[in-house]
Design brief:
The chain has eleven helices and 19 strands. With 295 residues, the protein is α+β, with helices and mostly antiparallel strands. Strands 2-1-6 form a three-stranded mixed beta sheet. Strands 4-3-11 form a three-stranded mixed beta sheet. A three-stranded mixed beta sheet has the order 14-13-19. A hairpin with a 2-residue loop joins β13 (198-202) and β14 (205-209). α1 (20-35) packs across α2 and α9 crosses α11.
């Protein structure tokens, strides 16, 4: 006979009297309907629940394995064994459990779609200007990553235990690359450089390099322990060079004028030009000393 024996169900589908190809179509229809129903995935750490369908999670029926088991019922063993199976099938029925497999690549794609609701990137500690105007530290925060292999194992257990309850998402903590202590050790030095504007004084005129501009010139290397603070002198040089036109003046020669018979002597005046190197050195000396004025 080319049909399943009476009383045989596969994954909840009665395939009694069906040929193998008929049973395969019935199982496919059943699986398609079941796999389109959302299931809950729960993150116990955050209390976040998200949903996805089994199809989206890459759950597939191993139809061949299921039909092999169903087909073998009543066809294996001795005549006595087979006769007993025939009678048992008619009286109590024979249930063949569903056999599932998970497409890992599809599962990973589903997790990428779900993950924004669950995971977050770590936040490195950062030097920032606080509302008070002073420089401070924005504290580091751990990130959360999805533990894919452990979550797949949880999905497989769920498939094997009557599909009850939510599927537990497994997560991992992700440490930030820069922690608070690394920046705390150099915070005072950074404040000395960039907490306040730097006043540049020349010929009685005052120019200011804003504190935020100075802060942008601070470089912190946290790959070293302790962290290493440097200052971008080239950026400082460029800022001071931008003042050259306002500092420049041409010298004038002495001159004599006669106004209504009165002789007036107009004295010579010196010209001024920016000594860029000396100005940068004076600014760096002031910053290193924590001063707010450089001549």
């Amino acid at each position: 006979r080319g049909e399943m024996y009476h009383g045989v169900t596969v994954g909840g589908v009665d395939v009694s009297g069906s040929t193998r190809s008929e049973a395969a179509r019935e199982l496919s229809a059943w699986h398609t309907a079941w796999a389109s129903q959302p299931v809950t995935l729960s993150d116990p750490d955050s209390g976040t629940d998200v949903s996805a369908t089994p199809a989206e999670l890459g759950v597939e029926l191993d139809t061949d394995a299921m039909l092999d088991r169903a087909w073998a019922y009543g066809r294996s063993g001795s005549l006595w064994d087979r006769s007993r199976d025939w009678v048992s099938g008619l009286v109590t029925g024979e249930h063949v459990d569903a056999v599932y497999q998970v497409d890992v690549e599809q599962f990973q794609r589903a997790m990428e779609a779900i993950s924004p609701d669950v995971i977050r990137s770590p936040h490195d500690a950062q030097l920032v200007r606080m509302d008070s105007g002073m420089l401070g530290i924005s504290p580091a925060e751990e990130g959360i990553a999805l533990d894919t292999s452990t979550t797949i194992a949880a999905l497989q257990r769920w498939l094997q235990t009557d599909l009850r309850g939510p599927i537990e998402l497994a997560t991992l903590s992700v440490a930030p690359a820069t922690a608070d202590p690394a920046l705390a050790a150099i915070l005072d030095d950074v404040r000395a450089f960039a907490d306040d504007d730097l006043q540049l004084v020349a010929n009685g005129t005052v120019w200011a390099i804003p504190a935020d501009a100075l802060f942008s010139m601070v470089r912190v290397d946290v790959s070293e322990s302790p962290a290493v603070l440097t200052f971008d002198e080239q950026a400082l040089r460029g800022w001071i060079r931008s003042l050259s036109s306002s500092l420049h003046s041409e010298p004038t020669n002495a001159n004599v004028t006669i106004d209504n018979g009165t002789v007036q002597v107009i004295p010579a005046t010196d010209g001024h030009t920016l000594d860029l190197g000396a100005s940068v050195d004076a600014a760096m000396a002031a910053l290193t000393a924590g001063d707010t004025t450089a001549d």
